[in-house]
């Protein structure tokens, strides 16, 4: 893992933390929808959100449903059924075969949680801390503002890609640790001044304080 760039505490003097420059949305021919790269974040290390395009259309159930669930179970897991508080698993972040689905929030695959859901695909999430998933077409257009599904002590790998995963903090690929989760308050001031990355989620009202996982 590359070392974090130099940083200054929030509110302190000196140069500001480097920001991840925005990138254009992924373009896919005949795409049904897409999840654009999230806005730039102030952070001492690069955190890239989900960059996926949802390529849909008429897809046979037998092709998509390869885990032997019933049609009803499969339908309930679709992102169109997600509401605030539901958890999301990224199955594939490929621009040609991108899939996400609802999962139980206690699942190790539940890396993201829906902070808020909005109708339409041009809405802005309440802050730059969210990752954004959008889907459009056939009258079913919506935006999911996704937050990390974390409790204090959780560690994550691949935070600089769309393949973020929960891992043991002792794992070789562990990069970021949730040292503090503040429920009921969405403000950078909720985290200690020396926090590596502060994620502020106005909906539902939560602040996540992340720091680099150092070697053990």
Automatic annotation (TrEMBL):
Regions of compositional bias (Pro residues) in chain numbering: 18-27
Transmembrane segments: 45-64
Source species, domain of life: Bacteria
Organism annotation: Labedaea rhizosphaerae
Keyword list, A-Z: Membrane, Transmembrane, Transmembrane helix
Protein name: Uncharacterized protein
Residue segments, region Disordered: 1-33
């Amino acid at each position: 893992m590359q070392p974090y760039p130099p940083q200054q505490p929030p509110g302190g003097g000196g140069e500001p933390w480097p920001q991840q420059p925005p990138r254009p949305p992924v373009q896919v021919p005949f795409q049904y929808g897409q999840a654009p790269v999230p806005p730039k974040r102030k952070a001492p290390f690069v955190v890239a959100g989900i960059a996926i395009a949802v390529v849909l259309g008429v897809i046979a159930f037998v092709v998509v449903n390869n885990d032997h669930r019933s049609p009803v179970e499969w339908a309930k897991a679709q992102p169109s059924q997600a509401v605030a508080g539901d958890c999301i698993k990224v199955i594939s972040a490929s621009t040609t075969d991108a899939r996400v689905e609802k999962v139980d929030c206690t699942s190790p695959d539940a890396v993201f949680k829906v902070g808020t859901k909005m109708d339409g695909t041009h809405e802005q999430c309440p802050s730059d801390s969210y990752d954004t998933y959008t889907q459009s077409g056939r009258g079913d257009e919506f935006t999911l503002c996704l937050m990390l599904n974390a409790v204090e002590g959780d560690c994550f790998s691949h935070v600089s890609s769309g393949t973020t995963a929960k891992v043991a903090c002792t794992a070789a690929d562990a990069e970021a640790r949730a040292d503090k989760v503040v429920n009921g308050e969405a403000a950078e001031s909720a985290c200690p001044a020396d926090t590596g990355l502060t994620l502020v989620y106005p909906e539902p009202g939560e602040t996540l304080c992340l720091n680099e996982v150092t070697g053990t």
